[in-house]
Design goal:
Length: 210
């Protein structure tokens, strides 16, 4: 599988956006912040999904939950989502098949619960009270969408066919009345993200986000 790391923002992440990291994973402020503190938590390895990652990089779920708690304390309840086995990158033309995967969660601090809005797009919905259990339940699905409105409620949704890119962002953008900003490429707002990352980096450096 040929890879051009320059075309993958998770293979070669912008250091100014990273605010917490280990040798196996990192958290960064995502471009196109629909809400303050919008973040991604991702593996460094090329792993198809978080459901696959739990057996490869132990501790990934705990790290994601740690970041989620920190974001919730700073910005309010944090919605966590995952698109399942969806590749991250396109080739430079942006039109052909993507070339690599990174298991990653999207975190939307202060977002409303979008799980009910998501349900109408899926034939199968399973509910769990724990993220680890939910990912184990998601593993048998070829493709799935995971949404967790709070730390005690997680839904895994599946249907025939692939899930569209930026589906979670579309749901959140519509819920907050900012539908036109769902595509992060059109509204990256990098400077705003750098400022958010700087503040969160200080929080994690102090160890108060553990």
């Amino acid at each position: 599988m040929g890879e051009d790391k320059k075309s993958c923002f998770l293979c070669a992440p912008d250091a100014d956006l990273i605010y917490a990291q280990t040798a196996d994973w990192f958290a960064l402020c995502g471009l196109g912040p629909l809400l303050p503190g919008y973040s991604l938590v991702t593996t460094r390895q090329h792993i198809p999904s978080a459901a696959d990652a739990i057996n490869v990089v132990t501790g990934f779920v705990n790290f994601a939950e740690q970041v989620r708690r920190a974001l919730a304390e700073q910005y309010g309840n944090c919605v966590l989502t995952e698109h399942g086995r969806v590749p991250v990158c396109f080739d430079p033309s942006g039109t052909s098949d993507p070339h690599c995967y990174h298991a990653h969660f999207l975190l939307f601090p202060g977002a409303p619960d979008v799980s009910q809005a998501a349900r109408r797009y899926f034939a199968v919905v399973q509910s769990f009270s724990d993220l680890q259990d939910a990912l184990e339940g998601a593993a048998p699905h070829k493709d799935y969408f995971l949404v967790s409105p709070n730390s005690k409620e997680v839904h895994v949704m599946a249907r025939p066919g692939r899930i569209i890119r930026q589906f979670a962002r579309m749901l959140v953008a519509d819920a907050i009345g900012e539908g036109k900003r769902a595509n992060w490429r059109k509204f990256p707002e990098r400077d705003r993200c750098v400022t958010s990352a700087s503040g969160l980096r200080k929080l994690f450096d102090r160890g108060t986000a553990a």
